[in-house]
């Protein structure tokens, strides 16, 4: 049991100064002043700090991404402590371009390891390719029978994509939708969006021709070019979720994307943000040759939302929402993304003076103090 005293609570809605009690990994009570009634109760001083929900990063290449520049460009896997440094308490892992030298089995093993080490972790089956790589040999069975698998990863409108037809997209979306219903999961297809001019057109055609709910399709990397983002804004106004990838250091697009979304009248609640952590970003010349490659950080989401606050693009409520409550709702994780009684004790304490991450709790367990992890991965 622990009590955080006197923090300024963003749930992510601003609730003001209060105490928060965590017991058995869950938030037990929130009040103006909670008395310390037990000798073994840990008391954390939250004065001068902001208390926010833990980050939910729904797009991380936990076993490493990349590989487009041959074997030496295979990115390393994510480390537990780097996730903690980024305030990530819930993560969804997935494969990228490489579904050949990397496997869903290895990804699933990494997810199980992260759970044992102390954070909440899920994954998607599949990769860029089609037919999808799986554990059981069947996308539907992976989703139904493997508790950690929430849906499918697939690439569209990209030079590395399998270029599946609209009919094939409809069929796999139907399978994922039904598998999600049978297993009580969101049943989603995370769609890696490339620079192909078709953009989201295959998805719009699938929606027009069927009654598959729009929530089944989850396009990501939607701000990679502005023509695609215009389509994403249309998708968002149809009540679809759109996922914006954090700035990688090459270009600064997130702030402009959010300005365009607000101008277009897209509900901020339909927008999420993710890191693409341990995935590679790459630049190609006009002939399709790789000219530059790098690796995205799993700590990117926290840095991105705090930068958006510092530059005045978002207020704290809005910034926390796109990284906590919005992805929790999109992934149908009712115990995540909020600070309220009954929610999981995934919490961040942030210094008010400089917006630096000071403490991380995952399921009520202190993982980081004074900006340094106190719990690390088994072999770190």
Summarize the structure.
The chain has helices at residues 80-85, 104-117, 139-145, 166-183, 201-209, 226-237, 254-264, 300-310, 316-323, 325-330; strands at 2-10, 14-23, 26-31, 42-45, 49-53, 55-60, 88-93, 120-126, 149-156, 188-193, 217-220, 242-245, 271-274, 280-284, 290-295, 347-351, 357-362, 365-369, 372-373. The chain has 380 residues and is α/β, with parallel strands linked by helices.
Outline the structure in words.
The chain is of the alpha/beta class and 380 residues long. It has helices spanning 80-85, 104-117, 139-145, 166-183, 201-209, 226-237, 254-264, 300-310, 316-323, 325-330, and strands at 2-10, 14-23, 26-31, 42-45, 49-53, 55-60, 88-93, 120-126, 149-156, 188-193, 217-220, 242-245, 271-274, 280-284, 290-295, 347-351, 357-362, 365-369, 372-373. Strands 1, 2, 3, 4, 5, 16, 17, 18 and 19 form a 9-stranded mixed beta sheet that branches. Helix 4 (166-183) packs across helix 5 (201-209). The mean pLDDT is 95.
């Amino acid at each position: 049991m622990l009590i955080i005293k006197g923090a300024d609570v963003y749930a992510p809605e601003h609730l003001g100064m209060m105490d928060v009690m965590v017991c058995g990994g869950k938030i037990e009570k929130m009040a103006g002043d909670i008395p310390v009634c037990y000798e073994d109760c840990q008391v954390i001083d939250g004065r001068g700090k902001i208390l926010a929900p833990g980050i939910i990063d729904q797009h991380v290449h936990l076993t490493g991404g990349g590989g487009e520049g041959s074997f030496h460009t295979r990115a390393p896997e994510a480390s537990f402590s780097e996730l903690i440094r980024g305030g990530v308490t819930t993560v969804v892992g997935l494969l990228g371009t490489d579904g050949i030298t990397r496997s869903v089995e290895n990804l699933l093993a990494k997810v199980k390891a992260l759970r044992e080490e102390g954070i909440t972790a899920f994954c998607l089956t599949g990769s860029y390719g089609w037919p999808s790589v799986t554990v059981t040999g069947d996308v539907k069975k992976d989703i139904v029978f493997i508790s950690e698998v929430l849906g499918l990863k697939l690439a569209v409108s990209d030079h590395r994509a399998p270029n599946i037809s609209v009919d094939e997209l409809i069929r796999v979306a139907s399978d994922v939708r039904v598998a999600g219903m049978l297993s009580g999961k969101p049943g989603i297809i995370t769609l890696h969006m490339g620079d192909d001019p078709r953009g989201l057109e295959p998805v719009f055609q699938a929606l027009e021709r069927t009654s598959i709910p729009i929530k089944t399709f989850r396009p990501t990397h939607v701000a990679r070019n502005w023509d695609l983002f215009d389509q994403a804004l249309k998708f968002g106004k149809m009540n679809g979720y759109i996922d914006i990838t954090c700035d990688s250091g090459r270009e600064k697009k997130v702030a402009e994307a959010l300005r365009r979304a607000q101008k277009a009248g897209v509900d901020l609640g339909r927008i999420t943000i993710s890191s693409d952590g341990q995935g590679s970003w790459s630049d190609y010349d006009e002939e399709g040759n790789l000219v530059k490659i790098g690796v995205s950080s799993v700590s990117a989401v926290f840095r991105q939302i705090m930068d958006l606050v510092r530059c005045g693009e978002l207020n704290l409520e809005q910034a926390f929402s796109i990284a906590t409550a919005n992805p929790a709702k999109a992934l149908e994780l009712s115990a995540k993304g909020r600070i309220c009684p009954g929610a999981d004790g995934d919490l961040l304490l942030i210094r008010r003076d400089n917006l630096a991450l000071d403490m991380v709790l995952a399921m009520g367990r202190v993982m980081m103090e004074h900006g340094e992890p106190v719990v690390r991965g088994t072999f770190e």
